[in-house]
Please model this.
Amino acid sequence: MYLKTRTRNTMKNYYDKRDGYRKTIQKGLMGAKSFSGKMSTGNDTRGKQIEKLKNEIQHAEAIVIGAGAGLSTSAGLTYSGERFEKYFFDFAEKYEIRDMYSGGFYPFPDNETGWAWWARHIYFNRYIEPPKPVYKKLLSLIENKNYFVITTNVDHQFQRAGFDKKRLFYTQGDYGLFQSVNPKNQKTYDNEGWVMKAMEAQGFIRDENGIFLIPDNRAISMQIPSNLIPKCSDDHSDVTMNLRADDTFVEDEGWHKASETYYHFLEENKNKHILFLELGVGANTPVIVKYPFWQMTKENKKAIYACINYGEVFCPSEIEDRSICIDGDVGKVFDEIMG
Model:
């Protein structure tokens, strides 16, 4: 009875907070209906677009960064190709898995194998430095600015790069967190200690910098011991990843606080010269960043919308005169801005 009362009161407190996540999604969806559907890729040369963006970053009163998978891809955190073949060669051979994304949905034969996979998946995307310093380049561009970041990425690379954690909102979860399968438990749990033990159990070895590497003989296991299968420390239930896959995703106290902070940042700056900087956001799931950014730019005549993406960059014709569209690798564009 106490648990039910506590959970109900906790959720009431959550709902009392301002929910920037859902409010902006609703705004974007409603706003999308008002656009004609005619898209533009900008009306300036690439060089002029770069200069305009550089100027906006320097002079905007506020910057809202919306980041998607393309930003981490630019940083070298790719889910296929060389990285996958290096760290998951055994899973690829035995189960014919071809990339990390699809491996996350594979029906492994037992928990020992499934959690061995996830230990690697988490470690090589969450607990190591990315191959390229793209996030640090972004920080150097906006570090002393009035900024806030909303991202669908779950690899925690903003915080690893040194961004102020009070200015970050990870909407879709965090590879570094577990949640209980018990729906009454709306908490999340740090998994770093478990990941390190599970990596050691598979036979990975640490180098002089403490980074796990595959041994020279490539003798690693695709299973962890049964006693290492993670359990919830509070109710001893099974755990799962804190990733938004369905309505069981736990939006914990920290999530709600970040959503509220995002709401207040937008409210405090809504009539200012604000730059909505979209980085590596594709068109598959536009409702969290892209549509809201378009609509908020349309509503505020002082606002500028900027989009950097590789092969997928456009804006509604209604805001073309206040948009910057740069097609290319995000990290290379940063180099051009900084050059």
User: Anything to note?
Assistant: The CA atoms of residues 75 and 134 lie 5 Å apart. The first strand starts at residue 39 and ends at 40.
